[in-house]
Amino acid sequence: MVRELNPDLITAIYLTSYGFISSLVKGKSLLCHFMIGSDIMITPFKNEIYKLITKYALSRGDFFVISSRTMAEKINKLYPLPEQQLLVQQYGIGDEVVNYPRQPKEYEFVS
User: Fold this and answer.
1) Cβ 88 vs Cβ 60: under 8 Å
2) Residue 12 contacts by C-beta under 8 Å, 6 or more apart in sequence?
3) Mean local confidence (pLDDT), 47-66
């Protein structure tokens, strides 16, 4: 399906599952990995196979989005990445979402 669609960009969440599969089929598409935590902090250290899967997926990615500097440090121990390929972005909602449409309201969030 990926070959048929020939997308410009593939995004994959969770490095050792969808990320790994996307790494196998990406072809010439750009691949952006979104890592959620345990896929880089825990799973690669379960056994050598997961470690190899993680390294392979990282080697095939073009851009990486993670939620903390701690994760960046862990990634760079496994497979150093160029800084310009790594975006550290916290989960959450910005003011532009909360304040749209611009009506006076009070919000209560549970995360």
Assistant:
1) no
2) 18, 19, 21, 22, 23, 31, 32, 33, 34
3) 95
* Interval 12-55: pLDDT, tens: 999 999 999 999 999 999 999 999 999 999 999 999 999 999 99
pTM above 0.90, yes or no: no
Tokens of 104: 């006076």
> Could you give the CA distance from residue 46 to residue 30 in angstroms, rounded to a whole number?
28
Q: What's the token pair of residue 62? A: 């073009």
CB 16 within 8 A of CB 54: yes
Distance CA(22)–CA(13), nearest Å, equals 10
> Rounded to an integer, what distance in angstroms lies between the CA atom of residue 33 and that of residue 51?
16
Q: Tell me how far apart the alpha carbons of residues 74 and 64 are, in angstroms, rounded to a whole number.
A: 13
